[in-house]
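re: ur question from earlier - yeah i can do the single chain one, its not a big deal. heres the input i used so u can compare w yours
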Amino acid sequence: MTLNIKYRPLKAFLLAVETGSFTHAADQLGVTQPSFTVLIQDLEKALDLKLFERTTRSITLTAAGIDLRDRIHRPIADLEETYRNMMDLAAVRKGLVVVGALPSTALTIIPSTLGNLRRKHPALQIRVVEAHNDELIKMLRTNQVEFALATMLAEVPDLEFVPLVADVFCAVYPIDHPAATMETLGWKDLVPQDLVLLSQGSSARSQFDRSITSDGAVTGLRYDVTHMMTAVLLVREGLGITLLPRLALPALPLKGLQHRPIADETAKRTIGVLRRRDRHLSPAGKVFLEELQRSASKIDAMYASA
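and the output i got, formated as tokens:
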């Protein structure tokens, strides 16, 4: 037997219990008193039980009514709270967004995005997971992040990529470094230099390694570091040249240093939003993405006009 459980008659019953009056309960439910009476009668008919004893002045619960009150009060309250939570999620009055981000985007695009979101949707909770590109793709595929600010080097059938910002890898070096006098600076020009490179897995390191592998050259790698800040500080000590994405440079302490793009098409990359094709964004994820696109467009326009 399939049960036809209707919320409105049950809510009417509970309001009648709370107010002790069909008239007052009807006002709270926003219906006329006759319509309210019909709701109670429909519930009694569906249950085949008498729930109230009524007089012209009062109502009292029958034994069945008491049993029903005790059984449904908590479930109805839980249902209503769940419904309100769902409405809050849909209206972005609350919610959690977990976003993956390349370190360079976490330094630049993410802060302004979070600032704007805080002003517009103060109740949103945001978690930003910083990782290298290959790790971000793994997290996407295992649902650890809703989407990621990353690059996609080759098309894959399960992921969708929306471009946001054009970026390029740059050599960063002291002002008096010999690289400053070179007419152009390509991948091969970096090979004999003392290098401070980001660790394996980073976009900059991966592109550098791919570009020089075919030559079989032995690089002047001296320092292998994890963080861009560390690389910059080592360069400031005169320990070599580092290779960093242009996108991150405005957030780094480059006083006393110079930087220039690597003169090679393979040094260019596009930062965008990676997401799974078979997953829908949450309402909170959608507003995050909209704000992200606005922040990225300002940065992209700045570089385009430079």
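The first helix runs from residue 7 to 19. not sure if urs matches, ping me
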